[in-house]
Write a structure and sequence with these properties.
The protein is α+β, with helices and mostly antiparallel strands and 408 residues long. The protein has twelve helices and 19 strands. It is globular.
Amino acid sequence: MKALVIAGGLPQIELIKQLKERGIEALLADGSPYAVARPYCDKFFHVDVFDMEAIKDIAVSEKVDFLITVCADQVLLVVAKVSEMLGLPCYIDYETCQDVSDKIRMKRIFKHSGVPTTDYVETDHLDMDVIGKLKFPLVVKPVDAYSSKGVRKAENLEELKQYYEEAHQIGRSGRVIVEEFFAGEEISVDAFVVNGKAQLLNVTNSEKVKDKDRFVIFRGRYPVKASEKVMKQIEDICQKIADGFGLVNAPLLVQLLHDGDRVSVLEFCARTGGNMKYLLIKYASGVDVIGATLDITLGQKPDLRPKFEKHNVVVNDFIYCKPGTFDHFEGFEELVKEGVINEFHPVRLKGTQMCGVTSSSDRIAGMNIVADTLEEYNAKREKINAKVKVVDVNGEDIMRHDLLPEMK
């Protein structure tokens, strides 16, 4: 068999490894010739991953048996559409994929299905007669962007106008959604729908940079800090989403906010969590979600049995930088060898110009840290923060050490 993997990020490395373990040839398409997964594939294609015709041509010329991606919602649209065009297997059809990838279509179904979410308006221009129905502060989002790009909180009309125009420029379609702000702690939920039944795998807190208008995650942590009441609502929400969107066999990533009592869903996608989320799930629940996604793509029952050692505390810490030209890392690999850091994964190459922290895509690397107790994690965190550096071409440490705070 032969598979075409779309997008070559960190999770796709694991996907390619698993394809090869199953005796499947792994081709890779990515828009960057420096994709981190490129060294692991059997054949590489440098192509715009959103160019459906180009992806289709590769699939046809290479006679692939299926296309696949993990941890990438907008790319999933391409996989679903091209698979449908060629009659190849995919766990989600293109129409449903549009519902779960377009924030406006998603909000409509949320409201219709009884999924708790904030009030919003649909508009293709800044129409204050329509937007005026909502109460400030407001959140502005491009309908079809990712990695929190263009997501801003506007406190007043002046900010709304600025952020609306930014969001309009960032999204591929130019469409923007404006919704009311819900004050609360963010939770990320990973589940898997099997024969229409949603099964919770992992629930984590998402800690974000404390900017007044941006929403950039710097840490994902397990176990979650949430009441039993909130957890019960989360279970109900996952099933309502599966029912409302007609999901039968699919991974499920739900992002929501809670204030200790009420819950409001931000968005979701029928995919596994991005970047290093599969590692957090692996070490917290013992479940291999990438393997399960490959199972359902091949028409098999997803294997959700715990296969790996579970840990009491599991944290993904993301490394961000001050502006500068990246040269090298110091201290990380040594701490991996000592067992202080469980896994370390760079996502940027030497010479990359780092521009600060505006979205999740600005991270330069990520660490997975496991511990038996919160105290053990904090001891590891303190040692890491004292010993590691992200060094620029001038020999300066540009790492944002303040974004590796003590965990409480």
